[in-house]
User: Fold this.
Amino acid sequence: MSVTSNALLRHITIDACLRDTAHKYSLQDLIAACTRAIKENSKTKLKDNFCVSTRTVQLDLQLMRDKKKGYNAPIVVYEQKYYKYSNPDYSIGNANVRQTTLTPLSEISETLQRYSKMAGMEALEGAVDIIRECLENKVNGSYQKIKREAPVKISGGAYLDVIKDAVVHRRVLSLSYTDERADTRDIIFYPLHLTSYRSRWYCMGYIEGKEGLKAVQTDCVTSYSYAILPFPPNYRFVPDEYFADIIGVTRPAGKKEDILLEVQANLARYIIQNPLHSSQKLTRKQEDGSCTFKICIIPNDEFYRWLYENHPFVSIHSPQYLKTNADNFIRNITSDLPAPIVAAEAKPKKDKDRRKKKKEQKSEQAEDLFSSLF
Assistant:
């Protein structure tokens, strides 16, 4: 952890202590809190006797009080021993700061800007824009000119960090795994790669006793232990090759083939702007806006599920056997769905109409009985 990061972490830690009205924090208490925070957040193992110096924390308190260089924090000492804020609602997170205070963040944005020009790292440009906008809003107090969609939290489960560490260090895992059908099984897993798809984390690797690469949903792992087994040196994973010909994360046996999709106008506009696959090509466009697209992929469950989710606005034109497979896939999904509520409501309505008609018939018969008297 850099010196600048340490300083910011100490300021945040001291701020949390001074806002805690339930406890009294002396200088030694603040030193202990800062030492603990740095040890917990350090990427490298620090010595057991590591401790933040008294002078460092005293300078931190002085800087936080400073109006020009710091946060103008209202730090006071009471009983000549304990530190606190004179204003209990104060926090450095709400303080107006100067550009010099956020210089480290500005330097980070400049570094990311340079890296974003490199091939394969263009996505960093978006991070640079976000950082610069935050700096502008914080320093100048301007309103937010650009509202970005909040990122969706990707589901990874309780053991995502364990699996991530196993991928990096090539460690074999013994997992208890519960799939979507609530079937629990124990597997020996050789993890190779982590990827996210539709807000879920998947780990690509080999399962003992099964052939080929498998995708394990990390949020379906219920327990784990490390297996005392060697990691085979020939186990490799090349993401660009694996994901090149599929949609999603599962790669079934078979070869890729050309698939023609007929898409109605309301969905075609979206697919043109957001291609389903890198091989997508527009082959025909009708006057009503409906289109025919060609993609070259290996059909898998994710592809069929996409067809189901967009049914009936999209259908397979060719090859015919894939159209049959898709129809069967959709039929299997819909067969497990509960009966429509409308069907349940139709019967009471029908019974009500029948009772109303019967009542009218009785009324007519009553009128006929008395009609002969007049």
